[in-house]
Each structure stands twice: as C-alpha cells, then as structure tokens.
Specification:
62% of the residues lie in helices and 0% in strands. The longest helix is centred in the C-terminal third of the chain and has 23 residues. The chain is globular. Helix 2 crosses helix 3, helix 3 packs across helix 4 and helix 6 crosses helix 9. The protein is an all-alpha fold.
C-alpha cells in the first residue's frame, strides 16, 4: 500500500470525517460505474454503493492492507452488487452466464489484413502498452472507448473493467466472480482484442 493511502487509512481509523469525505469524493463515481455492470438501474447501483460505504466504515479495523484500499472497497461492492442483482432477478450468477459462444470463433485480427501468402497487408498500429486504455489521450477517444465497452458481452465487459480499469489481479477476479483462471484469461483476451480492433479503426482513419 502506498504511503499516502496508509496515512489516509490511519485517519479513517481515527474517525476523521474529513478523510472519509475525501475518500467518498475520490471513489464514489468509480464505484457507481462498477455497480452498474451488475445492476440494471442507477437507483439500485446507488443503493449498493451507499451500503458499501457503510460496510467500509464497519470493516476498516479488519482491513489487512494486503491490497490497495480501492481494491478492497471494490471487492466489497462487487459482492453486494452480485447479491442484489441475483435477488432482483436482473442477472444469474456470473459463472452461469453465457460463454459468449457467438464470439468464440471470432478472429483476434481481421483476416482481410493478411495477403494470400499469410503476410500482413495492413499491419496493425504498434501499441506500447498491452491494454487499449493506455492509448487514450483525448476526450474523443475516451467517449469511443466507453461506447465500445458497452458493446462488449456482459462477462467480457465485467472482466476487462475489473482487470484493466480497477487493477484487480487474476486471482481476485476469479475469487470474486467464481470462475477459473482459464475462463478469466480467455474472456479478458477476447475483450481486449475486440477493443483493440475497434480502437484501431478509429486511430487508423486517414
């Protein structure tokens, strides 16, 4: 845990109201977006986020600091959002959702990019970072990314947000969503590949 987070945590455990207000201001919006991955309405998402903040206050002394504060808070929220989503019949448990069969055979790279000898006819852009989010440096691209995220199958969207936006480890994702490492890896690969392809179309426009 970073030094500034340790200082913030110490203040929170001392009952510092200003520190808690700062924590809420920093993460509330991100938690709402995360909750909406599991829930169908803004009202339900807001309710889960409020419940999460109460749980954070109750659980501060039990937090073992093995992860970042945001990861710990996000894990609390995901557990509550999953429970509420199932209770409202909005969704089945993550592990029983469809396997995105329609995407299983979808090629990672458009075959049209290769010539008849199997060589690149239209090489992809060279990206320095693995995740597409690293490429986004302007408001237009951010809007595009958000739009494309919404187009992903539900399982892929949840996985890529947890891994690439919130920084969860594969183990944390598998534990929270009750899936195995192979499923997690395949879903993340499909999500990243689709986003890369869509963003490449945007960045490669003349």
């Amino acid at each position: 845990m970073a030094r500034d987070e340790k200082l913030l945590l110490a203040r929170l455990r001392e009952g510092d109201a200003e520190a808690f207000d700062a924590l809420v201001a920093r993460y509330h919006g991100r938690l709402l977006r995360l909750a909406r991955l599991f829930l169908s309405t803004d009202a339900s998402a807001e309710e889960v986020v409020q419940d999460t903040w109460l749980a954070v206050l109750d659980g501060l002394d039990a937090f073992e600091e093995r992860s970042s504060l945001m990861t710990w808070i996000s894990r609390i929220l995901v557990n509550r959002a999953k429970t509420k989503g199932v209770r409202e019949a909005r969704m089945l448990p993550f592990s029983t959702l469809g396997d995105d069969e329609s995407d299983a055979a979808e090629p990672t790279v458009d075959p049209a990019r290769f010539n008849d000898k199997g060589m690149w006819s239209a090489p992809p852009l060279r990206w320095e970072e693995e995740t597409p989010e690293r490429l986004v440096g302007n408001a237009e691209a951010l809007v595009l990314l958000d739009t494309e995220l919404r187009q992903l199958p539900e399982r892929q969207r949840i996985i890529i947000v947890l891994r690439d936006t919130l920084g969860w480890t594969p183990e944390e994702v598998c534990n929270a969503l009750e899936i195995n490492e192979t499923n997690q890896r395949v879903l993340l690969h499909r999500a990243r590949s689709r986003l890369r392809a869509r963003l490449a179309l945007h960045f490669e426009k003349p």
